[in-house]
Amino acid sequence: MNALEHQLSYPLGDALPATGEVLEVAPGVKWVRMGLPFALDHINLWLVDDEREGRRGWAIVDCGITSDATRAAWEQVFERHLEGRPVTRVVVTHMHPDHIGLAHWLTERWQCDLWISSTDWHAARLASQATIGHGGPGAAAHFGAHGLTDPEALAKVRARTNYYASMVPAVPARYHRLLDGQLLRLGAHGWRCIAGYGHAPEHIALYSDELRVLLSGDMVLPRISTNVSVMDIEPEANPLALYLDSLERYRALPADTLVLPAHGRPFRGLHTRLDQLRSHHDERFADVIAACRAKPTSAADLLPVLFKRALDLHQTTFAMGESIAHLHALWFEGKLTRERGADGVLRFRAT
Asked: What pTM was computed for the model?
């Protein structure tokens, strides 16, 4: 546990649900944990007590990626922990593969519907049927323009033409739209939708006033900072400004809110964590400005400045996206200028 984590409170201590098992974290809310084949090796999923059209059951919040292991883990949950009740609906916070990957299977398995923001449903449908935005030639050209020159890394990015579809082979053909401010009633409790931007097109977190519980998805995580990337499909985006603005929307929630994040352990100390995340990005902005003051700097040049550890390919693509996002936030503020060199690489200078 690092020093920042010590500033947060973890009411369940080190307890984690084993694969296929659950832990109750609040009245009518059960914690499920599934594996992921990445350095970030897990995702937290949730069962929430629900009633739909007179049927008492469980809403599933987020799904895990499509894989035999994830399906098998869900079947174990269904066999042991549903108390004889059905799954009534599937709620997805956003379109990333670890959150929506098995939504098609779960909705078919239980003959129920999907709840998600309209923007993320459309983005997921497009991504599952195409190769843009998650690998392929466009992504390789995008990273190359920002200074990634390693031939092996670019070749691997270029070859990842089915990256998203391999984890999200299908998306349910219909959905119920979640909107910012909407009250979604799950069983006895209302859950207010809080839209967030920057990490995903239209991420929806859910907050229950009665339970003082926040299902934060990827917007607020206790141990790591949320990935915020500029991608090839929107090459001059400014997602980090959107993300930091979105974080302020959680300031209005009570200080004792129990945060149920998509990665890491449930915690209290929401306002402290918001301050930590803001400070983290302020420190990174200072590092970026210092680097760009010393010499014209590309996003690839910044990788060792922003990330002090060795990165695999999966991590490098996320790191490149984040590096560009930090540069763009400062560029849009007028603190950096941008120029394209004779080699085609975009570099930034401090003003």
From this structure: 0.96
Look up the CATH number of domain 3-273. Answer: 3.60.15.10
3-class secondary structure per residue, the chain: CCHHHHCCECCCCCCCCCCCCCEEEECCEEEEEEECCCCCCEEEEEEEEEEECCEEEEEEECCCCCCHHHHHHHHHHHHHHCCCCCEEEEECCCCCHHHHCCHHHHHHHHCCEEEECHHHHHHHHHHHHCCCCCCCHHHHHHHHHCCCCCHHHHHHHHHCCCHHHHHCCCCCCCCEECCCCCEEEECCEEEEEEEECCCCCCEEEEEECCCCEEEEECCCCCCCCCCCCCCCCCCCCCHHHHHHHHHHHHHHCCCCCEEEECCCCCEECHHHHHHHHHHHHHHHHHHHHHHHHHCCECHHHHHHHHCCCCCCHHHHHHHHHHHHHHHHHHHHCCCEEEEECCCCCEEEEEC
pLDDT digits (tens, 9 = 90+) for 320-351: 999 999 999 999 999 999 999 999 999 999 99
Over residues 267-280, the pLDDT tens digits come to 999 999 999 999 99
